[in-house]
Amino acid sequence: MIPLSLFWLVRWTRTHSRQTARQLLYGMAIAVPLLELMRILWLVWLGEGYWVKLLPLHLCGLQVFFIPLAVFSRNLPLRSYVWATSILGGITAIVYPAGIVGTYPFFHFQTFQSFALHLLLILTPVLMFLADDYSPRLSQLPSVIAILGGSALCAFAVDWIWGQNYMFLREVPEIGFLQAIMKLGGYPAYWLTLGAAVIAGCTLLLAFGQYWKKRD
């Protein structure tokens, strides 16, 4: 589904004007927080009244703030952060749908909401790259790490004060090698591995975007 969506998006941008593509980009940027708001309202309707559980503090959830800010402000550090982390988070969440598979059936609101949100997390930065003159560069990595570090500190504080697991900083997701590292080295080894994996993914995405741009 992801390759087909990316193929359609690239082809669509080649057959439509830059202005039309930017209108689609703005629509996607607005749709991301609206999809997350739908999930929050759905949980409230089910009776979830503990506000801490409703916060969008996962790597993907935080994109409800960063994507609209990046798209509408066109701020370079924010756009770089969205390019590096939104695609990474979207792909990871679709490949490893922690909290969805085994919890909800396929034909369920939460399943479709999660898939639609994470697909937009992939397609929105790609469209920003294709239609809004964004050029990824490896030199942008320090600003990405700085924003990522600040976001992780916020999630860490909420996790330890209110007993949550945003960004999977307290409990390891059901990914074999991460669970093995936690058993061998405890939290320090787990956090270092998790951070290194995210930074490595961000680096690869910035490098790929830079290479892709040069080819064009």
Automatic annotation (TrEMBL):
Pfam family of the protein (one): TMEM164
Transmembrane segments: 24-45, 51-72, 81-106, 112-131, 143-162, 189-212
Keyword Transmembrane helix: yes
UniProt KW Calcium keyword: no
Keywords: Membrane, Transmembrane, Transmembrane helix
Identification of the protein by name: TIGR02206 family membrane protein
